Amino acid sequence: MAKQISVQEAAALVKDGMTIMVGGFLSVGGPNAVLHAIAETGVKDLTVIANDGGQPRFENGLHELIHNGQVKHLIATHIGVNPEVGQMMNAGTMKVTLVPQGSLAEKVRAGGYGLGGVLTPTGLGTPVGEEAGKEVITVNGKEYLLEEPLRADIAICYGTTTDAYGNTKYHGTTRNFNTVMATAADVVIMQADQIVDMLDADEIIVQGILVDYVVDGGAK
User: Fold this and answer.
1) Which of 45, 113, 118, 210 has the maximum number of C-beta atoms within 10 A of its C-beta?
2) Is pLDDT at 174 greater than 90 in this prediction?
């Protein structure tokens, strides 16, 4: 059974130098309450794997950690909606690794499913391909990039409704990266809008066996 903890207790699990995965898409379906609590702890030197760098127009979220200088390396698919990311990248104050969105999802999936990587033609001949040092493998006369798996110390995910066992369901597109990231970390924290005793089996998207801690996203 997953253990219910407060946002502050969840934030305290994140230590200096950790690699964390963060669910969400432009802060939609993001574990923003937990991220805000992490920002307040002052933890630093984080490597963050996420779809993007967050959106400053939201009150809470990943952009807080970036703004505070708590992230040393961001691995993401795009950064345009948070101008600070580009500024920090150009200034050399934060390392940014850009990965095509589908490739990022597959790299995380590979990490979660114990695969050695995935082969994709996406990025061949571009700065995210061979120029970034990725291996090129030829299969049946066609070239592919080897995208290596990604894992994290902690995945901080979001769910619409979670039960006491950590089983989680989602509304609409809020599942985004949350479902695959829940497979690819040593510890999984699930922030939920609502926590119930038990979900119907047909509603479950992320199984509770993957979830270590449940957080009420609306609790103070």
Assistant:
1) 210
2) yes
